[in-house]
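In response to a reviewer's request, we include the raw inputs and outputs for one of the modeled complexes. The two entities were modeled together in a single run.
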Amino acid sequence: MRAWVFGDNLDTDAIAPGRYLKFDIGEVARHSMENVDPSFASSVRKGDIVVGGRNFGAGSSREQAPEALKHLGVSALVAESFAGLFYRNAINLGLPALVCPQAKRIRAGDDIELDPITGRLTNRTTGETLACEPIPEFLMQLVRDGGLVPHLEKRLRTTS
Amino acid sequence: MRAWVFGDNLDTDAIAPGRYLKFDIGEVARHSMENVDPSFASSVRKGDIVVGGRNFGAGSSREQAPEALKHLGVSALVAESFAGLFYRNAINLGLPALVCPQAKRIRAGDDIELDPITGRLTNRTTGETLACEPIPEFLMQLVRDGGLVPHLEKRLRTTS
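The model returned the following structure tokens for the whole complex.
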């Protein structure tokens, strides 16, 4: 899967620009990242991985930020660290977000493969393997179920 | 309330040292921060505020980290940024965590007051006012209810 690489402190306004928030998620997604990488929204493909630096997803808590990335088919996020609110929203939407201290070793366009359970990231372009922090099992269950709402629905069905 | 100030990338092992995790939360809390500030656990008082730098709560997802701070009576956390997993756990436990870009202006021992709704932080020692990012209303409801579990219980009672 192709790696789309962004820098430190990338904020939610870059991911989901404020002036499109009044439109539906398809329209927001079409403008995702347009101020930092105008080719992103039209070129990203299903399964691709977004790579960030420190404090990825800083700024406002708008849920459309992870939602736009999911809508575009992004399969996972990898960053040195994530802003708390963004991380919460991403996981709640079922979009896996992995902390990877060596994320900066990944270059734009690298062909990478990620196992969110073990945290193992294989870079096929460079032949390198990076160790990301695996998603804790209690959150992985939520991601597997497709996010918080379907996860709770499933649990409530099971217990009732 | 007294400010207890810590640096960048303070990890969950500093907050809740691994070798005490097999004991109850009272014992874990008694050793909180002992490797960075041995006076913290015995001197912190109900209502005090913990102040961090960048990526506060990095490292493992252990829920005992925010739980220990809550157990010690810490009323809120303020930091330049929070690690995603730690932030999630803190909010789920009903412990307010506020992003404050100017957190480094607060000195250890300053007498500070924080309004988590508006994000206004008043430093009575220096006379300064800092603007933190308010906790979004949907999360503040969860914090007010005492955390995720009581919040869900309340909502389920209301809707059933």
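As requested, we also summarize the result in words. The CA atoms of residues 47 and 69 of chain B lie 11 Å apart. The first strand of chain B starts at residue 3 and ends at 5.
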